[in-house]
Every structure is written in C-alpha cells, then in structure tokens.
Write a structure and sequence with these properties.
With about 230 residues, the chain is an alpha/beta fold. About 20% of the residues lie in helices and about 35% in strands. The protein contains seven helices and 13 strands.
Length: about 230
Amino acid sequence: MGERAYGPAHRGEGSGPGAFTPDGNAVELYSRLPAGAEPEVIARVVPPGASILELGAGAGRLTHVLLERGYRVVAVDESEEMLRRIKGARTVHSSIEGLNLGEQFDVVLLASHLLNTAEPTSRDAMLRSCRRHVADAGQVLVERQGEDWYGPRKAPVGRERAGIRMRIVSADRSVPGVSDVRIEYEIDGMRWTHSFRARDVPDAMLERMLAAAGLRLVRYLTEDHSWVEAVPV
C-alpha cells in the first residue's frame, strides 16, 4: 500500500497506507482504533435495546460495541470505504447534513468531535439532522472537545493504548477559537498522519446551537462537559 494525501486542508488531510475519507481520516487506522470510554457514557443514559442512529459512524469503532450491548444501530457515514468495515448494522452512505431517512430513533448519536471539526454552517445542519431523526421522547447525545481543549495547546503530547501510539505533533492556536492540529498514529509499524482544523464550541455557544436546531440541553454527561444530552423542544 502506498502513501496518499487528501484535502482540502480546511476539511482535513492525511497521509499513510490505504484509503482515506474526504476529511483525511485513514480507513485502515480507524478500523483498528478501540472504542475507549464512549460506550460506557452512552450505556449510562440509553436504555437497553434502544434504536440508535449513529451519525459519522466511520469504520464502526463505536457501532460494533453498541451492537454487542444489544442496541439496534443504523450507521451513517459519507465514506463507503468506512462503511464496508461495519458488520451487523444497517449502513447508510450519506452526509450527515443532507440525511433524511423519514424515520425517527430513540437516540441520535453525534460523536467523534464532529461539531468541532465541521464548518459553522455544516455543524448547524448536523444538529438539525439530529432533530429531524430523533423521536419526540428520544435523546440526542453529542460529543465535542472537553473544557481542557480550550486552554493553550502544548505539543508534542503522546499516549499509547492497546498497542496504538498517538502523538499530537503540533497544535497552532494563532487564530482565536481555532486549533490547527497535526496528529501522528503508529500501529504495527504502520504510520499515519492527520491534520485538521478544530473550532471551539464552548458551553454557551453549544446551548445556542442546540436551541436553534429545536433541541434543549438536559445535562452534561461527563465532568469535562465533552458529552451532552439534549431532547426535542
């Protein structure tokens, strides 16, 4: 497998072996990344057996764990390459913003900090899509960068988990409220990079965005406020 790089830079760009998504994420890398603590956060507030619409599901990092826990998951992603890695769930190839399934779900899940990496008009459309697809008595769970993200960034910062090495090589915050980040990953001797732009979405802004989409913040699910629960107004 050869080296590839994708752009444009405002959406993200990546390099390394294998296929990439339009926003620069490496398919092979994301098919290997573990789910982490996210399924525990979700399971604490979502009843067993609930139907979940997972927006931006990628290669199934969360999808497969949620299926194992007995949830009924429909996985949506704009990358067909990513969706091919998902087993056991119904998959839908679509952008989040333009999605209109004509169905509603117990839970709509918008994880992976998509609100931070999307353009402002796109993130508003993402939240409207959440509202469009959540049942009247349902929940919308959103993940964004936690409070610690908004302080000064220090690089390089690295960690290793499950044999995967991740290092923040650079994080430029010369533009107020914006981080231009470059991350390196290494697994089994293979190396990828991902460069992307992340915009701050502090609490007050998030609450305004939710309200504009017809949603109401119920509570923060984690101490760092990275996960929030909202419901239809």
